[in-house]
Amino acid sequence: ARDLGVDLATLTGSGPLGSITRADVQQAATAPAVESAVAAPAALAASPGAEREQRIPVKGVRKLTAENMVRSAFTAPHVTEFLTVDVTRSIKALDRLRTRREWRDVRVSPLLLVAKAVLLGVRRYPMVNSTWAGDEIVVKDYVNLGIAAATERGLIVPNVKDAGRLTLRELADALTHLVQTAKAGKTSPADMAGGTVTITNVGVFGVDTGTPILPPGESAILAFGAVREMPWVHKGKVRPRQVTTLGLSFDHRIIDGELGSKFLRDVGEFLADPEAALLAWT
What we know:
By secondary structure, the protein is an alpha+beta fold. Helix content is 38%, strand content 21%. The chain folds into two domains: 8-55, no CATH class; 77-281, Chloramphenicol Acetyltransferase. A hairpin with a 2-residue loop joins strand 4 (145-151) and strand 5.
């Protein structure tokens, strides 16, 4: 397209899922220039209700996010797996944590335990925390934990630097600061640089889970869905329990189905019984 002087943004693809094919480019290159220049204004003029349309310039954070998501989606082969988990014990553990004197001024949410589960899972499966770099895979001994945050400027993914070295209390403080800074629109470029693995908390919007797109350079992202009271078989009987669904997207060039499944399983096992997992894994 570059050699023929064709602007890909002006093309409508005829390939699978709307992808642009070689034939589409060649056809655009041979089409009369005057015809395309005249057709566009005519089409706009014929559009009913054009005076009631709002046109929002795509720039800044929104433009950068869009470019990153497109680049990631069409570069890394994404695979997404799902796991539904009874997190009743996690919710009770958080309730007990809130009653402790040293935690009374700390914002405690289920995201804290999800973050801890991911960090411990990375420790058990280091390949999850890696980057595909062409002719090599870079496995990182540190975890810059990204937290996807929806803001008025668009979606941003700041990260907690070296999160794996933090205590649970330090992690709680770091997550609180990260979220408050993002909502205030004060997240700096440095805060968003260097992420290694990410969590997106879609549950805050009442959504059960999702199939998230990897941030560029990362090999795994976990979607944390809404926690709902649901009927669940517990100790042989159907009881109301607190249940959530996790969705793990990963780069299949680095993480195969076995590794992705084991990592997701272990995150789920931690959330099903965090106190037992902390004793067993740390």
